[in-house]
Amino acid sequence: SHLDHFFLNFFFPLQFVALAVCCVPTCTMIYSLCQIIYPVRVFAGMNAAVRATVRVGLYTGAKVFFVHEGYQGLVDGGDNIRPATWESVSMMLQLGGTVIGSARCQEFRTKEGRAKAACNLVKLGITNLCVIGGDGSLTGANQFRNEWSELLAELVHAGKITSDEAKKSSHLNIVGMVGSIDNDFCGTDMTIGTDSALHRIMEVVDAITTTAQSHQRTFILEVMGRHCGYLALVTALACGADWVFIPEMPPEEKWEDHLCRRLAETRRSSRLNVIIVAEGAMDKNGKPITSNQIKHLVSERLGYDTRATVLGHVQRGGTPSAFDRILGSRMGVEAVMALLEATPDTPACVVSLSGNTAVRLPLMECVSFENNWNTYKLLAHMHPPDVKSNVSVAILNVGAPCAGMNAAVRSAVRIGITQGHHMLAVHDGFEGLAQGLPITWTEVGGWTGKGGSMLGTKRTLPAKVMEEISLNIAKFNIHGLIIIGGFEAFVGGLELLAGRQKYEELCIPIVMIPATVSNNVPGSDFSIGADTALNTITSTCDRIKQSAAGTKRRVFIIETMGGYCGYLATVAGLASGADAAYIFEEHFNIHDLKVNVEHLVEKMKTTVKRGLILRNEKCNPNYTTDFIFSLYSEEGKGVFDCRKNVLGHMQQGGTPTPFDRNFGTKMGAKAVLWLTDKLKECYRHGRIFANTPGSACVLGMRKRTLMFQPLDELRDQTDFEHRIPKTEWWLKLRPIMKILAKYKINLDTSEHAHMEHVIQKRSPVLMPV
Q: What region holds the Phosphofructokinase domain (predicted)?
């Protein structure tokens, strides 16, 4: 069902439809889009949501309006409600905060104020609002909707609107997009702004760590979170903090003694201590615990050189991360679709992200936090069991290095030790299985924030050295294997599985954790390392576009990594506002290139005189980056000039993003717990023997859950020649990228989110995920 069919079903029976997202829409015979953003507190990623809502609204034929200054602008009306154009949301993606402003509005809290807002909407024919904000903003919107009929009746009685106008605006539809750096909204795994806030925090933590190590200091970092400790907890997981205080889990009585004892234990093997405090932290009696209080405690009792840092509003600012840009863009598109499908009986809903799936939830069911407290407690402090398991688990990295690998290794090692296992570090991939070395709790300290692979990694596959590997598995008495890597790790796992027919030593549980910038491992929608690479590309594109802002009439052609997989080019294109992204999975020809050039020629006639083209490195053997650069340069003569940039291996380097640190941490922990259970299942007659397909699995994220899938079952889902899965979820994002770049295409709406209910909040599978 394409959008033209969608129009017939939803538009023409209506006289008008209007949508608001701190932008306000109106229209007659076609729907109008209005956007209302009312967070008093702003956050990164809002502009991506605004941009997507406006452009998709315009794409569908709507007249779109901005409502400036949030609900205050809605109440005041006049110049605060202005038409939005395609160009007016250009160059917004990389900006923090909100370009259309936000303000507190006491008047909207009163019925008189809401009546003024209703009058302004009715006069413009607006019957749909899209609200971006937190609990307060969305609760206010829901109250506004519930009172709508009553407000119209009062306005008619007062003579401010006519009965005809009231009849045409008889109901108000509302869709919310959740924005909050605290990630405190029930029913969604991530709110817009949370990942960017984590980026700001981790930048500070990484900087503080270097000075703390040099001076042997203790640092106390206070982050936002008056009622919700998500930022504090995820920061603690991402940096391996010694202690974390959050409102949801007050410390036990005499926590001061416990804290000092833990810090002293850590200092024996480390030159620094890091303590993370949420601003709303308190003890069992409800007494606040502050960073200064902890500082004085540590200084006086332990005599450590201690510093306290309160981050404050730096967490709300800065450039939005790639994750927040994509989240905001996807939610903006889904919000428009939800409003088009709304009826008078449809409850006000929130569009949000659950795992990797867009969902719609009744607004008032969403207005609460669940954390990963147990994971942090397992990883932060060593609690070895009294009885060892006599199980040896080996961990190795295979393929190209990527950010986040070390976080997965650290998590797996520490969880394994808490399970009583003997953990072995395998250096240099499958070749290193000849020399498994024990690895301890303290050896992996500080690994979470390090890029690359501390264990070392190679692309060598096990088939050529299978006999040596089997001998050494027996020699080192290895009972389970964790393979962290990319497509080579996947193929290597299949080869080990096939080797079981000849070598009995290979009949042990095996789990593979996808870790590659290419995000091309079958069985998982996301790979560790891809988010870091994506942010590297996005930030580079931001700088390139900024350089063109002064020059004007310039088109940049950027080559990304990924092998045959176009994930990086596509998602970076969406996050950076690219005009086109050439990938292997979507074949293109000279006609397509001609269309793209003509599109840019037309674009140069507008106020947006710049272009950005991304090309996946193996999208086509003939249409190379040099060829496309030459073609664009020739065809654009006199209209625009071109520049090219091959990003290369800078995409594999750098410190991991909060997403990759925490995704790696969760994957490592989950892999070891699965291995532990599988070892119990496979224990027969005094030995481990695992030869079922389910004993060798890929741990991956599929839509909304982390799941284990047998390697053998994934074989049929794999294009081995091109090293990619046969089905790739992110291809559904490509039409969105093209629509936002103003291409006239059909959007497939056969798959869209349906209204769900919040029965029980699941633990987030993605942490900034």
A: 44-338, 393-674
